[in-house]
Design brief:
Blueprint: H1 9-26, H2 55-60, H3 63-70, E1 84-86, E2 89-91, H4 93-104, H5 127-136, H6 151-154
Antiparallel strand pairs: 1-2
Length: about 160
């Protein structure tokens, strides 16, 4: 596997320049004089014992673990973990489905004057306030990304 100097001249030249730099810093005229060759040098660092996982290891872990840490956004409606950007707002699957059903079926909820606080634990208690919060945050049927849904849903 040894390659001659003619095959890769630019690599050999770089190595020679590094040796000259080492000689100038150490003050030695001989390339390897005064250097301890038993320990890895700065230009050949052993990364096999590093504690952090390599890029290859991270890729082999799978998409599930990689995606779990990449989206740590809260649902703007209820505070649950958002699954993506739905109808113009970062929303969880529950609020996305609730808004979609309300719009598609043209549902009208019984008016509530209490201005209920919508949270993950009680988001199903008051549909009127939940839908009003969706609208106040800017959720809109017009904000759908049409390239990501079946043709039948676009109509």
């Amino acid at each position: 596997m040894e390659q001659s100097k003619e095959e890769i001249p630019e690599v050999r030249e770089e190595e020679e320049e590094k040796e000259e730099t080492v000689m100038a810093v150490s003050g030695n005229s001989e390339p390897n004089e005064g250097l301890d060759n038993s320990a890895p040098s700065a230009k050949y660092t052993d990364i096999s014992q590093s504690s952090s996982p390599s890029l290859l290891d991270q890729l082999q872990m799978g998409c599930d673990e990689a995606n779990s840490g990449s989206l740590n956004v809260e649902c703007r409606v209820c505070g649950d973990k958002a699954s993506g950007f739905h109808y113009g707002v970062h929303a969880c699957e529950g609020c996305k489905g609730f808004f979609r059903r309300t719009i598609r079926m043209k549902l009208e909820y019984e008016k509530c004057e209490r201005n209920c606080k919508i949270q993950k634990k009680n988001r199903n208690k008051c549909q009127y306030c939940r839908f009003q919060k969706c609208l106040s945050l800017g959720m809109s049927h017009n904000a759908i990304r049409f390239g990501r849904m079946p043709e039948a849903e676009k109509r």
